[in-house]
C-alpha cells in the first residue's frame, strides 16, 4: 500500500507518499481503508522525533482517521461499515489496522472527512474535562490556547456542560473567535497576566503549555481546583511550590491519550461516543475544518498547523 | 477558663496553663467541656508560628478533643452528651466551641481519652485515602513515615480496604512495628532508595515529606497513580519534571484538613464516622496511645512528639 513516510530522518518536512508493507491484522483488529486522516500537533512532534509511537503501534504517522472496514478480521464487524477511528498511529496510509474498541460510528450528519478530524480532539477533551476532571454545571474552566483545535472544541463542550469558560489566546482576532463560540472571559496573554485576571477562580484548567505556566496556573485555581496538563509547549521542567497545593487542595495531573492501554482507550471511546456524539449531532458543538488537502501534501499540512495561525482542523484525504 | 497559651511568643516551648476568656458560641456551635485533647504535629508547627489557625478559629492550640456537651447552643443537642470533636483550634483548653458538623460519637468501646486522639488521624487518613484517592482492594499504597501516628493508622486502614501496603521508616524497629500492623513491603529509607524498590508499582502514595521526595515519589507511581501530599517535612520548593506526569497520567495533590470549610469538614466527619468508626469498633484498626499527660504538661508532650521516637499518640487530659 501507499503511505506517508519520512524520506530523510533528519528532516521532519521530508514527508512523501511511498510504497510500504500492508498492515498485518492482530486478533481483535479490523483493517480500515482510510478515507481521510486528521492532522494533529502530535503528528508534527512525531516527525520531529519527539513523540515516538507506543510499542507495537504503527510507525506511520496519524492519530485519527475515517474510512470503511475492508477486512473485519475476527471481530464479527461488517465489511464496508463506515467508521471513525482513534489510532495509536498509522492514519497517513491507505489502510490501517484498528483495535475494535477504537472504532466509532460517524457522528450523525457528519461526512467521512468531517468525522476523520473530530475523533482525537473529542476523545482528548472529553477524557480530560468530562471523565477525569468531572467538570460540571456552574464550575469555571480555563482553556489555554482557546483559538486552537483543542481550544475551540473545548469551549463549546464546556458551555454545553453549563460551565463558565475562560480562555487565553495571543490575538484579539482569536479571542473574538473564542467569544463567538461561547467563551465568557477572554484573556490576551500577550497583554494581560491570566493568573492576575483569574486568581483563585478556576475549578479546572486545561493546559497545553506546561512548565512556563505552572506557577500562574496554580494561582488561578480555586479551592479543590484541578490543573490538567495535556501538552508541554512551554517546557517540561520548572520549580513547583508544593506549599501552594495543600491549603487549597489543588491537584496537578498530566495525561496523554496515545499512551493509554487498549482497555483504557476503549473506555474513552465508549464514553466519548455516549456523551460527545449527541453534542455534535444537535450542533451544541460545531466542528470546523480549516483546510482539506490530499494525503500527498502531508508536509504542507504540517507546515500550516505549525504556523499557529490555523483556527479549526486540517484534514488529509486519501 | 484555663487554657494552654504561649507565654513567650519567641519560645515555642513556653506553653503554660493560663486564665483566658471563655469561648463565645456562634449559631450552630456547641460548647464542649474538654476531657482530653490529642497532640498533633500541627500543634507543634503552630507553636513555632508555622501553622496559624484559619480566620475565625480559636488562637488556642489543639486540633481534636473529646468531652461532654456543656451548652448545646441552638443546635438541639443534649447537654451531657459525650462527643469526640474535630477542631480548627482550641483543644488545649477547659472548654471549646465546636460547629455541630464536627461532632462525632465516641467509637464503640472507646473511652473519652482514647476517642480524643483518634479524630484527627482518622479524618486525615480517610479524607485522603478513602474519599480523595478512592483507594480500593487490590491496589498498592505507599505510606511514608509508617511508624508515625498517621502511618500506623494508615497501614491498618489500607489493609482493611484490601490494599497491598508498602511503608518507609528510618529504623528496623519501626519497620517491625509496621510489619506487625500488616505492612507488606518494608523500606528503610536510610539504607534503600524507595523509588528503586517500588518503581512504577504504587497506585497511591500518602506523603508527609513534600519537596525532598517529589522526584522519587513520581518514579514509584504506577500508571494513573496519585501522589497525595499532606505534610511538607522535607521542604516546599523543588523542581518538577511535568514530562513524567503525562505518559503515565500521574497526579500530584496536596491537602490539609484544617483549612477546609465548615461544610467540607462536616462531609469528612460524616464519611469518617460511616467508614472508619466500624473499623475501630471491631478492631480492624487499633489505635495505640503512647502516653497520657496532664494538660499542664503540653510543652513536655510536644517535646516527646518532636523527638520522632514515638509510636502511637500522645494525649493531654484536662
Automatic annotation (TrEMBL), chains A, B:
Pfam family, one: ADH_zinc_N
Taxonomic superkingdom: Bacteria
Coiled coil: none
SMART domains in the cross-refs: PKS_ER
GO MF term (any one): oxidoreductase activity, acting on NAD(P)H
Domain (Enoyl reductase (ER)) ranges: 10-316
PROSITE patterns given in the database record: QOR_ZETA_CRYSTAL
Keywords attached to this entry: NADP, Oxidoreductase
Gene3D superfamilies: Medium-chain alcohol dehydrogenases, catalytic domain, NAD(P)-binding Rossmann-like Domain
Keyword presence, Oxidoreductase: yes
Protein name: Quinone oxidoreductase
Organism (species): Corynebacterium halotolerans YIM 70093 = DSM 44683
Amino acid at each position: 500500500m501507499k503511505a506517508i513516510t519520512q524520506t530523510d530522518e533528519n528532516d521532519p518536512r521530508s514527508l512523501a507518499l511511498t510504497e510500504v508493507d500492508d498492515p498485518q491484522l492482530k486478533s481483535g483488529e479490523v483493517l480500515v481503508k482510510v478515507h481521510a486522516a486528521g492532522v494533529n500537533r502530535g503528528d508534527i512532534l512525531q516527525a520531529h522525533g519527539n513523540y515516538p509511537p507506543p510499542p507495537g503501534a504503527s510507525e506511520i504517522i496519524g492519530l485519527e482517521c475515517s474510512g470503511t472496514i475492508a477486512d473485519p478480521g475476527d471481530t464479527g464487524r461488517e465489511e464496508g461499515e463506515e467508521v471513525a477511528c482513534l489510532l495509536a498511529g498509522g492514519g497517513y496510509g491507505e489502510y490501517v489496522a484498528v483495535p475494535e474498541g477504537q472504532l466509532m460510528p460517524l457522528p450523525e450528519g457528519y461526512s467521512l472527512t468531517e468525522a476523520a478530524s473530530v475523533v482525537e480532539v473529542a476523545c482528548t477533551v472529553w477524557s480530560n474535562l468530562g471523565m477525569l476532571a468531572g467538570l460540571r454545571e456552574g464550575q469555571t474552566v480555563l482553556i489555554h490556547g482557546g483559538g486552537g483545535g483543542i481550544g475551540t472544541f473545548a469551549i463549546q463542550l464546556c458551555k454545553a456542560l453549563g460551565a463558565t469558560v475562560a480562555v487565553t489566546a495571543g490575538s484579539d482576532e482569536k479571542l473574538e473567535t473564542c467569544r463567538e463560540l461561547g467563551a465568557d472571559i477572554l484573556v490576551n496573554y500577550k497583554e494581560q497576566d491570566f493568573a492576575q485576571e483569574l486568581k483563585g477562580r478556576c475549578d479546572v484548567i486545561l493546559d497545553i503549555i506546561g512548565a512556563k505556566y505552572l506557577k500562574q496556573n496554580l494561582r488561578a485555581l480555586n479551592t479543590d481546583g484541578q490543573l490538567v496538563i495535556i501538552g508541554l509547549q512551554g517546557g517540561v521542567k520548572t520549580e513547583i511550590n508544593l506549599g501552594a497545593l495543600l491549603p487549597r487542595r489543588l491537584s496537578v495531573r498530566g495525561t496523554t491519550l496515545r499512551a493509554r492501554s487498549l482497555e483504557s482507550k476503549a473506555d474513552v471511546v465508549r464514553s466519548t461516543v455516549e456523551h460527545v456524539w449527541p453534542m455534535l449531532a444537535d450542533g451544541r458543538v460545531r466542528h470546523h475544518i480549516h483546510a482539506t488537502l490530499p494525503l500527498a501534501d502531508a508536509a504542507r499540512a504540517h507546515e500550516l498547523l505549525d504556523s499557529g495561525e490555523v483556527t479549526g482542523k486540517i484534514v488529509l484525504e486519501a
